[in-house]
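BUG: 3D viewer hangs when loading the predicted structure for this chain

Environment: internal workstation, default settings.
Expected: structure renders.
Actual: progress bar stalls at 90%.

Input used:
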Amino acid sequence: MLADLRSKYPLHNYERSALIMRDLRVVKSQTEIELTKKACAITKDAFERVLKFTKPGVTEYEIEAEIIHEFTRQRATGHAYNPIIASGKNAIVLHYIDNNQVCNDGDVILFDFGAEYANYNADMSRSIPVNGRFTKRQRDVYDAVLRVMKAAKEMLVEGTIWNEYHDEVGKVMTDELIGLGLLTRHDVEKQDPKIPAYKKYFMHGTSHHLGLDVHDFASRYKPFEVGNILTCEPGIYIPAEGLGIRLENNILITKGGNVDLMADIPLEAEHIEEIMNS
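C-alpha cells produced before the viewer hung:
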C-alpha cells in the first residue's frame, strides 16, 4: 500500500503512524472510560450469576455458558478474550481454555473473563471454592494474593515506571510466599536477580494496559499517565497442591490517584462465600 501511495503521490512525505497512535491510544477519553465501565458492569453481573450457579458436579463449560448468556442478555459484543474457567489443578495452567472438566467438591475455580462492550474490554480474575467454603490453606493463599493486589493497586499512579513497579510488587509477593512456607529467606538470598525466587509461584506480570485490546498497545518505557487503564492481577500457583489463585481488577489512573473500575465486584473471601451460600 505504501509503494502504491508513493507512486501516485510522490511529493508527499510518509511516516509511520504507529508511534503517534500508541501515545494517543493509551490515554483514554471520557467516552472510552464510560464504555470500559459498562464492560466492567456487565462482567460484574456475570460473575455474581456464576457465584449463585456454581456447585460440585457442574462442568466448566456450563459455567462458561452462564457467562456468555449474561453477556448476550446485556448486549455485550461477547467475550473480550477466550474465557478461563479453570477448576482444581487446571488453574496452574496460565492460559487454560479447554473448559471441559467437572468442578469437584473441595477444589477452587480460577476465573479469568471479561465482557467486550462497544469494542472496549473488561478483564477480571477471581478464584472461588466449588463448594462455597475455602479450606484454611486455600484461604491463606487467597488472602496472600489479595494483600499483594491491594499493595500493587497503591502503586498504580501517575509517574510510576513499569519495571520499577513490577520489581516492587515482586518484593511484596516474596514476603507473602515466605509467609506461606513456599519460599525461605535462604531461597531469596541465593536467588538469581534476573530470575527472582518468587517467579516459581508467580511467573507473569502484575499489570498490562487495557482498552480496545485486552493487552492494549502501549510503551513499556513511558511512565504511567492520567487516563491510563491498567489491570492489577497478582497470582500464586502451586503445582504440588493443585491450587492456583489469581485476583484481577481494572484500574483507572486519575489526577488524584486511581479509581478501581471493579470496586463493586465481590472480592473479599467472606463476601464470595456469603453470596455462594445465600
